[in-house]
Amino acid sequence: MACYDTCTAMPGDIEILVDDKFRGEIDGGRIKKMIRHVLKAEGVALPYEISLVFTDSETVRQLNRDYRGTDEPTDVLAFSLLPQNGTDSPFPLPPDGIARLGEIIISYPQATAQAKEQDHSPERELALLVIHGILHLLGYDHEEPEQEEKMKQKEKELLE
Fold first, then answer.
1. How far apart are alpha carbons 152 and 106 in whole angstroms?
2. C-alpha radius of gyration, the chain, whole number
3. pLDDT per position as a tens digit, 48-65
4. H/E element, 73
5. Which of 23, 90, 100, 159 has the least C-beta neighbours within 10 A?
6. 103 forms bridges with which residues in the sheet?
7. Quick one: pLDDT at residue 1?
8. pLDDT value, residue 12
9. CB 102 within 8 A of CB 89
10. Residue 95, domain extent
11. Which residues does 57 contact at the CB level (< 8 Å), separation at least 6?
12. Under 8 Å between Cβ of 53 and 104
């Protein structure tokens, strides 16, 4: 796995890791710009750290099985480091003022297949999955119909 530009995360930094198989397919600069836009729109101020991984479907399936108990492929997983729904974070965080948001993992093959199914570009699908993952890191969910509608509306706003 290769880093998009640098493997050194700095406060306020966005780390993007791309599986070597998909290295030329991901526009890291565009993805970083979008992440900054979404975080700003959601009121997340610097300094923050966030990691994004683009990998294969089998890796995402294994993570889905190991961490969510669902042994099937999926398009995006989000592992938040922020306290969710009034709970404490499961990870001890240093008191340095940096919001460590978490990690988003995207199956590039699943994203391209979904783009084809939805008859839009892989770039649009990746943008939607990145937004979806960020919203999960920030506490949005879609388990209940009301939550799902709120999250879909937010995704649509941020995608435009």
1. 18
2. 15
3. 999 999 999 999 999 999
4. none
5. 90
6. 51, 79
7. 52
8. 62
9. no
10. 2-159
11. 73, 107, 109, 110
12. yes
Copy the structure tokens of residue 136. Answer: 């999960």
CA distances (Å), origin 23, targets 1, 19, 27, 57, 69: 9, 6, 9, 15, 29
Roughly how many angstroms between the first and final C-alpha of the chain, as a whole number? 31
At 30 the three-state DSSP class reads helix
Half-sphere exposure of 17 (CA within 13 A, CB side): 14
- For strand 2-3 and strand 13-18, is the pairing parallel, antiparallel, or unpaired? antiparallel
Contact, 91 vs 82, CB < 8 A?
no
Q: Tally the domains of the chain.
A: 1
- Which residues sit opposite 16 in a β-bridge? 52
- The list of the chain residues with pLDDT below 50 reads 2, 4-9
Q: Which CATH number is 121's domain given?
A: 3.40.390.30
* Alpha carbon distance 116, 75 (integer Å): 14
